[in-house]
Amino acid sequence: MDPDTLSKTFVEHYYNTFDTNRPALIGLYQEGSMLTFEGEKIKGAQAISNKLNGLGFQQCKHHISTVDCQPSGLLDSMIVFVSGNLQLPGEEHMLKFSQMFHLVPANGTYFVFNDIFRLNYA
């Protein structure tokens, strides 16, 4: 699968899972994975899952604007950069966000080794 197709497939899967079945995201991370969420660093699949499932909202909808990817050269891994909008229930205005994933191959699939998320305030 070419990098652009792989990254778009991953992004669709990640955000659909986040929006509809957030606890299932744990399967995309491993114990060596790290998430930086609004500057807070979290390491390990279970800790990342706890953070994502403990956010102050249970429902949301991501609207993806752009997906850019590059091979990182390390073990056929990839860097994926996403920008978009996040709609929370009851909120009139969407929140702009950016997120970067470092995807690393393992056992015939990819897992998220690094994940950096930021809301974009303008």
Question: Can you describe what's shown?
Answer:
Residues 6-119 form the NTF2 domain. Has a role in nuclear-cytoplasmic transport of proteins and mRNAs. This is NTF2 domain-containing protein. InterPro entries: NTF2, NTF2-like_dom_sf, NTF2_dom, Nuclear_transport_factor_2_euk. The protein starts with a helix and ends with a strand. It has a single domain, classed as Nuclear Transport Factor 2, Chain: A. The protein is an alpha+beta fold and 122 residues long. Strand 4 (78-87) and strand 5 (95-106) form a beta hairpin. The model has no long low-confidence stretch (mean pLDDT 94). It contains two helices and six strands, in the order αββαββββ.
Give structural attributes.
single chain; 122 residues; alpha+beta; Nuclear Transport Factor 2, Chain: A; 2 helices; transport; NTF2_dom; protein transport; cytoplasm
Helix-strand layout with pairing:
Elements: H1 3-20, E1 29-37, E2 40-43, H2 45-53, E3 61-71, E4 78-87, E5 95-106, E6 109-120
Parallel strand pairs: 1-6
Antiparallel strand pairs: 1-2, 3-4, 4-5, 5-6
Domain NTF2: 6-119
Pfam families: NTF2
InterPro entries: NTF2, NTF2-like_dom_sf, NTF2_dom, Nuclear_transport_factor_2_euk
Number of domains: 1
- Report strand order across the widest sheet: 2-1-6-5-4-3
How would you sum up the major sheet?
6 strands, mixed
Structural class by sheet pairing and helices: alpha+beta
Number of helices: 2
- How far the N terminus sits from the C terminus, by CA atoms, comes to 36 Å
Radius of gyration, taken over Cα atoms and rounded to an integer in Å: 14 Å
Taken from the alpha-carbon principal axes, the silhouette is: globular
Which percent band covers the strand fraction?
A: over 45%
Quickly name the level 1 CATH class.
Alpha Beta
State the helical fraction: 10-25%
Average per-residue pLDDT, rounded, comes to 94
What are the low-pLDDT stretches, counting only 5+ consecutive residues below 50? Answer: none
Write down the CATH topology.
Nuclear Transport Factor 2, Chain: A
CATH-scheme architecture: Roll
The H/E string reads: HEEHEEEE
Strand tally is 6
Subcellular location: Cytoplasm; Nucleus
Function: Has a role in nuclear-cytoplasmic transport of proteins and mRNAs.
Main location: cytoplasm
Organism: Physcomitrium patens
